[in-house]
Amino acid sequence: MKKLLEISLGVVTSVGGFLEVGSMATAAQAGAAFRFQLIWAVVLGTICIIFLVEMAGRFAAVSHHTIADGIRERFGFNAFLWPLLAALLVNFLVMAAEIGGVAIALELATGIGFQWWALPVAVLAWLFLWKGTFGFIEKGVAILGLVTLCFVVGAVMLKPDWGQVAAGAVPTLPDHDAASYWFMAVSILGASISPYLFMFYSSGAIEDEWDKSYLGANRAIAGLGMSFGGTIAIGVLIVAALVLAAHGIEQVDDYHQLPLMLIPIFGFWGFVLFVASLGIACFGAALEIGLQQAYLVAQGFGWTWGEDLKPRDDPGFSTVYTISLFLAAIPIALGLDPLKLTIFSMALTAASLPLTVVPFLFLLNDERYVGEHRNGMIANAAVIFIIALGFVLAIVTIPLQIFGGT
Amino acid sequence: MELLRDILDKQVVDREQVKIGKVDGLVAELRPGKPPKIVAVELGSITLARRLGERPGRWMALLAAKLGGKRHAEPHRIAWNKVRDIGVDIEFDINVRETAIFDWQDWLRDHVIGRIPGAG
User: Fold this and answer.
1) I want to staple A303 with a disulfide (CB 3.0 to 4.6 A). Which of A165, A316, A368, B9 is the partner?
2) Sign of the C-alpha dihedral computed for residues A108, A112, A118 and A121 taken in this order
3) Residue A134's pLDDT band (boundaries 50, 70, 90)?
4) A63 to B114: CB separation less than 8 angstroms, yes or no
5) ipTM of model
6) In chain A, which residue's Cα lies nearest the Cα of B7?
7) Which CATH number fits the domain that encloses residue B20?
């Protein structure tokens, strides 16, 4: 019973981690521009992240190392520096985008320009990390994040042609704007396969003191949680395809177009739901990424870390999340367009994947860490596929950014 | 035991299980005709910078001496005979409070973090 409760909590938590500004914005853009045609990218991204999250949790539960610990120990400091720097940079951009997402939600709610909200949002997020415990943040993000289910409800109420939806799960070539189509596919993959998600998950497994008895729960949480998140992203895509396109919006290049999505379905409450979903999902993600920055640095250098400790007892750790949050608020406070930043950082996330995923191939096959719980054939094939995908994405991202970006 | 593989870059804890850093470097004694013997592990930014190259190492040593005084001009060392247990972490029979390793975190706590309300 306790395990069941833990699994359901874990599932809900992973939804909170999965659904953030990136997956919402990219899914909305893709739906408006290409109807259901890019659903396959969400499905593919979701399958990839399921494998990586499961492995990150298994690695932590069996070896009692986080992924960052593992990379440093297995490959040495000099090799560790590359994924460390890449992850810090990508996380910084994604966190700025999340703060931008919350700021946009507040602008929609109050009419006060988003740039004025960047610092207050950073201060509030910082307060949560400063005073909160890991369990509080995990559960809070999880439960409030359920509001994003309104997109799934909305998608069902719109009665889409489910045959066409299913057809979208199979990759097809676009009949217009090919560069933009592929750029969106890359951004969706970047939004789904986020390194911060699986690295955070492995730190969470250590914070929650997982051991081998959690391997089953880990598999269930990874599989169900990420599928749940992917389903909501597909819900966003379907709603965008049916509502935005019907209103003549084929190119989402401004966040102000988005609240329209839920209004034809829920009326005024659709506006409220949209603002709440955007604000909460992005705020939760900002908290998790802030923590992840601190985990990454503290674990990489062996400092004392843990969200349950008082800041006095892990001064290095709390300094890192404090600085990260305020740095990430700066671009938004200066008025950088949150949507552009979001799409750019999702594409960059995709390009950074090889650096963070290649180590999985070694760590999850090393008996000294995972013993008999090594990767099987299928899991290894999945990692190799994701690495190959990551290399392709790394090469095509920049040209596509130039020709297909908005 | 393969030293580089099994010791280097592992987590170091003191006897109270406080995480004090990683094994950033190893100090070994070369013995003619016999395999080298570890005498100490090194921790800290100077050792890490030395792993990146000679020049970063020199710069980091200068910087550390400037910021932390003489006590920080050389890397922190823990004698190998203090090792108590090698598992997920390497435990040394020392108390980190009696070393200079946490000086910067103490400074941070006393001058910055501890002054913010609610730091605990």
Assistant:
1) A316
2) negative
3) confident
4) no
5) 0.92
6) A73
7) 2.30.30.240
